[in-house]
Specification:
The protein is mostly helical. It contains 14 helices and no strands. The protein has helices spanning about 1-5, 10-15, 30-35, 40-70, 70-75, 90-110, 115-135, 145-160, 170-195, 210-230, 235-240, 250-265, 270-275, 280-295.
Length: about 300
């Protein structure tokens, strides 16, 4: 066992945990931002701890999934370079690391006093959904995409549970629709990359380009519509003391145009990889974040 552990570099351990994918967990901050509590020290610290807890649980899920798919990953042009598939980290060491991540995640969640049982239930739900996905549900068409969508929604609900806030129906619907778009886009490019070769993901045989393209842009359109309805809602305008939120809709459309151009290029369609490798898209996203912060936290807003 000693010689196996010594072969595991810190770099491989970090790569196995996939910290780059923690970018998805920024969704936890949506409720605290939209509830105008981002500048509250205690609430922000709680969400920060929750971000750590959720990220560690995600790492455990990624590790368990890599263990489960080690053989198929070795046949994949990109995934074969993952630490477990490449043989750089052994399965016993990976299991210990996954267990440590789960334990620390639960401990951090317990530290979030106000969230109580709700946040723990959402953590458990996320883990069970993804475990089921890894154990075989990812091979069932449509259900595979639905489970990916559920993962994004749970992130937002977990962020709300931490600070005991609710999430607007319009925001929830926008997140769900956008998540469907992202999931369908990922499947589209996985199918494109297969290029008639043996499919490393069996569920791809049930999808076609016309189907995926059609529903991708249907879901994207719905996401923009739901966001537009939220931003133009009179109660939202009254809460933030401004009716200018609706003017962020063109910026959201521009963001999604840029993202869609990336998805239709030579990427694998993974949301994190698409965003991470597109600096102009990151710049647009940061610009949108600054505009939203100024509008929501402007001096005219009222609680």
């Amino acid at each position: 066992m000693t010689f196996q552990v010594s072969k595991c570099s810190v770099r491989d351990i970090v790569k196995l945990m996939r910290p780059k994918h923690y970018l998805k967990n920024l969704l936890l901050f949506v409720p605290i931002i939209f509830s105008r509590r981002l500048l509250e020290g205690v609430a922000f610290f709680q969400v920060l701890i929750g971000f750590g807890a959720f990220s560690l649980l995600c790492s455990a899920v990624y590790i368990l999934n890599d263990i489960r798919d080690v053989e198929s990953d070795r046949q994949h042009v990109v995934k074969r370079n993952r630490p477990i598939a490449a043989g750089r980290v052994s399965i016993p060491v990976s299991l210990v690391l996954a267990g440590a991540c789960i334990g620390l995640s639960v401990f951090l969640d317990i530290c979030i006093v106000e969230s109580g049982a709700d946040s723990f239930f959402l953590l458990l739900l996320y883990f069970m959904v993804n475990l089921s996905y890894s154990m075989g549900l990812k091979h069932i068409p449509f259900l595979d995409i639905f489970l990916l969508v559920l993962g994004f929604l749970i992130r937002v609900l977990y962020g709300a549970a931490i600070i005991d806030e609710s999430v607007s129906n319009w925001v929830s619907l926008a997140v769900i629709s956008l998540s469907f778009y992202l999931g369908l886009g990922k499947r589209r490019n996985e199918l494109k990359k297969s290029d008639g070769k043996a499919l490393t993901r069996r569920v791809l045989q049930y999808y076609s380009f016309p189907f995926l393209d059609k529903f991708m842009y249907l879901c994207l359109s719905l996401a923009i519509v739901f966001y537009s309805l939220w931003s133009s809602d009179t109660s939202v305008a009254a809460r933030y003391g401004t009716d200018k939120l609706v003017w962020t809709v063109p910026l959201v459309i521009l963001l999604m145009m840029k993202y869609s151009a990336d998805v239709e290029s030579d990427s694998y369609g993974d949301p994190v990889d698409v965003i991470w490798n597109d600096k102009p898209l990151i710049g647009l996203g940061l610009f949108y974040a600054v505009i939203m912060f100024l509008l929501i936290y402007g001096s005219g807003a009222s609680k």
